[in-house]
Predict the 3D structure of the following.
Amino acid sequence: MKRRAGEREKELKKKKLLEELGENRLPYLTPADADFHQLWKTKYSKLIFRKSDTVPEELHQMVQESFLTLREQNCFFQDLVRIKGKDFLTPVSRILIGNPGCTYKYLNTRLFTVPWPTEGYDIKYCNPQIHDACKALMRLNDYLHIEAVKALQGQNLFETKEIKDTTVIDREQSFATSLTEQGSVSEVQSGVCVPEDDRSLKNRTSYNLTLLNYMDPLQMLYLKQEPYFGMGNMAVSWHHDENLVERSVVAVYSYSCEDSAIEECNEQELKGRDPAVWHVGLKVAWDIETPGLAIPLHQGDIYLMLDDLNMTHQHCVLAGLSPRFSSTHRVADSSRGTLEYILGQCELALQNLQTDSDSMALSLKSLEAAVVKQVEEIHNEVEFEWLRQFWFQGKRYLKCTDWWLKPMAKLEEFWRKMEIMTSLVLSEVRKEQQIEEQRNETISCFLLLLKERQKLRKEWTASHRKNAEKETETEHPDLKSPSPI
């Protein structure tokens, strides 16, 4: 419900912004514009850019080879995502690589990591080339972690200096004014000047996964036009990255397969951004006063989005003419998105199930409304956030590794037990031995969750029919049978 309310709010903001613009377009700057660097410094200072020549050549070679390997092995897939209640196939093809057991959810679609080589985990890859590609991306991940820490430390020093300079200016004012203002200045200083501890820096820069993207614009029948600034073809629309640790750094490595046959336009003759070159676009969220930025991306360039930039600003990816890969490293919020978490939830739910030692009959320990509600919520979570998400994407992960099959089999086993628990609740509430008030409370919360389950099953069935890729030739058979209502 919260997600849908958020989507409605975004749509209203977008509609209002487009109405205010009418036929006009907002201004935006590129490096060819005189005020570009000043605008970047004042309004987009938390975007850090590293040109390719600052990155070790050996790392470039390893990472770029890994992109090409994964493409050759057909490991990139378009995702069927849900926007405003409708299913869309993404123009960009993706693969998620990261810590074993991690997932990343965007636009109602949960992706499951192809695990990179991790000590203590038995990961079997389909071939050595995929192992080497995952290992190279893990090396890039380590490098970007170090760069992100440096960038945050630099930002902290810059902000500290700014506050010190402001304090000096304040002290040059009249004595009476400085006495009243000194307290507020020191309060701000105390919040920023204290060096950020190592734990906070680590939490905001320890990337647990990377979402790889690939697109060849010349193979696309249609690309959406950027609506606010007239920046041209978009590969990825304006957005904030979802499901990240708050104020964590997003790091992006860009690799466009630049071809000598695709020539860049003469900057002096061009108005706006060069449509032959890939760009990242930035704007202040829902703002029509501040000009946007369009920054060209070339082979091996890196950019970092620091601190709260991902919350206060939006970014998009503007297509060039050549094929492009990117590796977008994130600190994904793992509070509800890891295998360890969902297995723990299942074990919590199954604590309410007991087996008679003599007859081996199953029964519930408690029929309290709160206990039943918790179990059925977990039942819905494991089915719709994990099992259906995984099987909907079919056999794509088997192109790289079979690592997820055993955990999914375990989750299915737990899910089947929860289906039995649902039947047991139904059986018990039909009996009249229960106190009527308690019985009614249990039935009330139980039916709400069953209705939600039935509605979601219908939506998932419809999505399977619309799956343009037809990756999933057969839905997992056990997931077809609804719980009785």
